Amino acid sequence: MKSREPERKRVKRMPKGECRAAARKIIRRATVRDKTGYSDTTIWRLERKGLFPSRLLLSEEGGAVGWYEDEVDLWIQTRVRQGGKRPLVQWRGGTTQRQGDGEDPRAASSSEVR
């Protein structure tokens, strides 16, 4: 008597490039809001301008959307300031200095005019 084993179906293997894409994690709207700190409207505006990763439609109606987590994380990393330094302020007079460092060039020019 032979034992009956279920037939094994051959599984199609995807090419290597497609395997990586299939393994990417998709995160939903609430997670993107938590990670970025931005509202839905701000995320939508940045997307429209091409300044934020594009969303994926997860349903035909378009109500369920998501983003690739690695793209959102990379976007966040590119926006983190380096070294905790404040950004430089460009004064109209052409001198560049940090806000609050030294004398305000505008104050000096306004006292000469008086």
Question: How would you describe the overall organization of this protein?
Answer:
With 114 residues, the protein is α+β, with helices and mostly antiparallel strands. It has 5 helices and 5 strands, in the order H-E-H-H-E-E-H-E-E-H. It has helices at residues 16-22, 29-36, 40-49, 69-79, 105-113, and strands at 26-28, 56-57, 65-68, 89-90, 96-97. Strand 4 and strand 5 (96-97) form a beta hairpin.
Question: Which characteristics define this entry?
Answer:
114 residues, two-stranded antiparallel sheet, alpha+beta, 5 helices
Strands, helices and their partners?
Layout (H helix, E strand, L loop, with lengths): L15 H7 L3 E3 H8 L3 H10 L6 E2 L7 E4 H11 L9 E2 L5 E2 L7 H9 L1
Antiparallel strand pairs: 1-3, 2-3, 4-5
What does this entry show, briefly?
The protein has 114 residues and is an alpha+beta fold.
Whole-number mean pLDDT: 76
Distance between the termini: 112 Å
Count every helix, treating DSSP H or I runs of 4 or more residues as helices. Answer: 5
Global shape? elongated
Percent helix range: 25-40%
